[in-house]
Amino acid sequence: MLFNTTYKNKDNLKTIDKMVGNSYGFLERIKLKGTGSKRMIIEEVSPNLRPIINRVSDINYASIELRSKGILIYITKGLSNFTWVIPFYQLVIYKTNGTSIHAQGKYIHFKNNITFKENKRFFDKLLSEKLKFDEKYKFQHIDP
After folding, report:
1. Which of 27, 47, 63, 138 is most buried, by the most CB atoms less than 10 A from its CB?
2. What's the CATH number where 43 sits?
3. Alpha-carbon Rg for the chain in angstroms
4. Hey, is 139 helix, strand or coil?
5. CB-hemisphere CA count at 13 Å for 35?
6. What's the pTM value of the predicted model, to 2 decimals?
7. Alpha-carbon distance 66 to 140, whole Å?
8. Would you say which domain of life the source belongs to (predicted)?
9. Residues 6 or more apart in contact with residue 24 via CB below 8 angstroms
């Protein structure tokens, strides 16, 4: 789900918290050694995300925040801020010449450069948290 978060809206914040959980507390952030990525350069987005990306030749940036049940991707377009909310059960990550994050029929591809490489530890943490979440809801295969 995509929200315009340029201005605070209590209803949007409640919806975001319901979808991906509250942000981590101070001690939890220290234990996880941070819950946010550094900003990364957006190389490509799906057609349904193009309206929130700068159309001129400006570089587009995004950053990711880790939550207990998902992630938030923050995108800035000029003076406007957008937040893409992705619960873990919808999150799919591909590593192909950078990284692509897919969910809800949308995707965002991050450029494979030094800013992306600085976030390797964050992506390792993200995958670890997603695996922990998936383990909670692991289904057993029963043969008939």
Report:
1. 63
2. 2.30.29.30
3. 16
4. coil
5. 19
6. 0.88
7. 28
8. Bacteria
9. 32, 35, 66, 67, 68
